[in-house]
Structure formats: structure tokens, C-alpha cells
Specification:
- The chain contains no helices and eleven strands.
- The strands form two sheets. Strands 2, 4, 5, 6, 9, 10 and 11 form a seven-stranded mixed beta sheet that branches. Strands 1-3-8-7 form a four-stranded antiparallel beta sheet, with no helix packed on it.
- A hairpin with a 7-residue loop joins strand 9 and strand 10.
Length: 118
Amino acid sequence: VQLVESGGGLVQPGGSLGLSCAVSGVTFSWYDMSWYRQGPGEERELLATIGSRDGRTSYADSIQGRFTISRDNGKNMFYLQMNSLTPDDTAVYYCYAQDRLGISNGYWGQGTQVTVSS
């Protein structure tokens, strides 16, 4: 099983950035997909989840209305569109896959750095 993030980088405050996660080695449509982040000296934080069955989404309060999670089952990809970024959004961003029944331990990507700075 492999999850590979892409799209991180440096962006100015108020800017936008899109992250992608390519998933292989699992039946993609059976898995709920999530994005997490971990800032310097902080615990890993769940940002958003998109369900496997109906594509239902949920968001952390910290990013509600600014970030959007989506998935493309035909491409085995899911995404995080981030708008109105602030320096507080600076972190390593991780994608995560969990089977819909919660049987497996879940799978993590390697992480991609997002830095918001002028």
C-alpha cells in the first residue's frame, strides 16, 4: 500500500495551494480518506475526511470554509484545496486512508511541507 502526497510548497499569506494524494495497493472506493497536519512542536491534527460510500465530508473547525477535500475514485486520488492561507497553516500535511469498516490500522503518506510566509 502506498500513499504519495504532492503539491506542497511555499505560499504567501492569503494565497491558495492544492494538495494531492495518489493511493495504490488498496481498493480505493472502500476507503475513507483524510488529511492531517502537524505543525512544529504540535500534535498531528485531523483536518478533513471524505467518506467512501457517499463522499460525505467533515472538517475541523480550524479550516472550515477555507479548505475543501475531494476524491476521484476513477483515478485513485484525493485532494485538499486550501484557500486563504495564514502562517498558522504552516505544517507538514499527511494523507491517510482507512477502510470503511475500520478493520485495518490505516495507511499514511510520507507528508508534504506547506509553508505560509511572506
